[in-house]
Amino acid sequence: MATTESTTTRPGERQAALAELLPPVTRRRPRIGLVSGGLGTYWPQFPGLLPQLKESAAYVAERLGQLDAEVTDAGFVSDAQEGAAAAERLRRADCDLIVLFLTTYLTSSMVLPIAQRTHTPVLVVDLQPSERMDHASFDTGAWLAYCSQCSVPEVGNVFRRAGIPFRSVSGWLRQESAWRRVERWVRAAHVRAALRHARHGLMGHVYPGMLDVQTDPTLLSATFGSHVEVLEFDDLRQRVEKVTEAETRERVALARKVFSIDGSVVDEDFAWGATVSVALDRLVEDFRLDSLAYYHRGLDGELHERIGAGMILGASLLTARGVPAAGEFELRTSIAQLASQSIGAGGSFTEIQALNFEDGVVEMGHDGPAHLALSSRDPLLRGLGVYHGKRGWGVSVEFDVRPGPVTLLGLGQDADGSLSFITSEGTVVPGPVLEIGNTTSRVDFGRDPGEWVDAWSATGVGHHWSLAVGRHGADFGAAASLLGIDHREA
């Protein structure tokens, strides 16, 4: 690697440096609705039963309250009328997920209105008090506290007949493996909340010839509820022109804290990238953007070409703060990055670079914006006199993704227009990487690299996607369920 201004910044210090001038973007927490219930006919028959069931309901409410979500507890219902009243309260709460806790047997008429009237995905949770009953000492009343599973097939049948997707977690009250499954659905609600309320910036035009990246903005609004804000490069140009020299110097100083600076970086290009970075922050703030996809072809070094070429530094800083940015007008990939970030898994703009059949890995990465939190070392700013496949020149971000489990998430689109989440889990392993101003990862998918490419391509994924850290295929599968789209794995 070329001579650099060496630093020893650790990931936490990088985030602190970012927070110094770039406060992190606050995200909306998902709204979780909770309603507990059982058949009221039992209460006069077995006086000790209801207090016991309400204790279990209080424990469930407590556990949900410990998660990163806003919880609306609609209380305990005992008949269909109370179920309808709970449905109305949860409808007004505008939840991202409703948890229906079955404490004992109840009739499906008590819970169907909750799913129908709220128009919100429902998770049925039935957790009996302990691992098993004490058969020698239990009477009928004690048994009924363990009888919640009896109504799960009934609810599943009625939901299916009503055209409502059915999801459930069955177990016992303090079973941590059951709670991990519940927590997965809450993480999925984070994705639904992020996409349902997102404002996606789309600036410029599609990279000529890339038919796979073209996306109908109306489809995103219809599928997720997202808003696509169509922007002009002039929106950014006007803000670039208002950046002061002092603001540029401050952004250069910040970049020096976050990045190692390669000897190939030209001071003029560094300052230009810093100027565009300041303007990008204002663009995001002014239009209240949650993501940004962009591309401009340019011509002979004109101003818009220079702005497009100078966006990599600022787009990477935005991505690190929680506003994912993707080049080449890749709207669906910026959405996949936002979904990845909503569960705290990062999410970097990625495509296939090459295959290494000796090491059994797929080499991935991309030029342009990258997610700095994924870096295994101090990210590097490298100066490039030419961008491959794009006009312009300037500074680019380079690093290799830290070793460990990763999950790819792509947003696919089929012939009928429907969207899908497409995932694949692998492991980043150390080894040689290119030094060309790109983000790079070497991913072992536990199979022949060529076979993996065939399987991945057959899913209908485009040639870009989000790379997230950790094992999250099941999380994204659950999120697809809440969003009402397909999930495919490779």
TrEMBL record:
GO terms for molecular function: L-arabinose isomerase activity; metal ion binding. One of its GO terms (biological process) is L-arabinose catabolic process to D-xylulose 5-phosphate. CDD domains: L-fuc_L-ara-isomerases. InterPro entries: AraA_N_sf, Fuc/Ara_isomerase_C, Fucose_isomerase_N/cen_sf, Lara_isomerase. One of its GO terms (cellular component) is cytosol. Keywords: Arabinose catabolism, Carbohydrate metabolism, Isomerase, Manganese, Metal-binding. The keyword Magnesium does not apply. This is Arabinose isomerase. It comes from Streptomyces griseorubiginosus.
